[in-house]
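C-alpha cells as discussed.
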C-alpha cells in the first residue's frame, strides 16, 4: 500500500457517516447511567430537568441524578441545553439524539 492510498483510506474513514445511529449504552457502565440516559430525550431537543428525571425514576436523590448527568456529559452522551440555567435542562448530544423518524 502506498502512502497516498493509506492517506486516502484514513481520510475516508474520518469523513464517512455511520450507517446507523450509535447506541449510547455501549459507553455506559452502571445501571444508573443507563436509566438516566434513556430518559434524556423525553422532551426532544428542549431537554429535561434533573428533577424530572429523578421523579420519573421514582427516586428522591436529585444529587445522584445530577452527578450521573455530569458523568454522562464527560462521556459525550449528554449535554446541557444552551441557554438553560434554572432549571438546568439536559438532552442527548447530537450523536445520540433521535431524529423525527426515530421517535418512539
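Sequence:
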Amino acid at each position: 500500500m502506498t502512502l497516498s492510498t493509506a492517506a486516502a483510506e484514513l481520510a475516508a474513514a474520518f469523513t464517512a457517516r455511520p450507517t446507523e445511529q450509535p447506541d449510547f449504552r455501549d459507553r455506559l457502565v452502571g445501571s444508573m447511567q443507563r436509566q438516566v440516559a434513556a430518559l434524556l430525550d423525553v422532551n426532544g431537543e428542549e431537554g429535561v430537568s434533573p428533577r424530572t428525571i429523578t421523579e420519573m425514576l421514582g427516586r428522591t436523590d436529585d444529587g445522584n441524578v445530577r452527578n450521573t448527568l455530569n458523568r454522562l456529559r464527560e462521556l459525550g452522551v449528554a449535554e446541557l441545553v444552551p441557554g438553560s440555567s434554572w432549571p438546568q435542562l439536559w438532552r442527548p448530544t447530537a450523536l445520540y439524539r433521535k431524529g423525527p423518524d426515530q421517535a418512539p
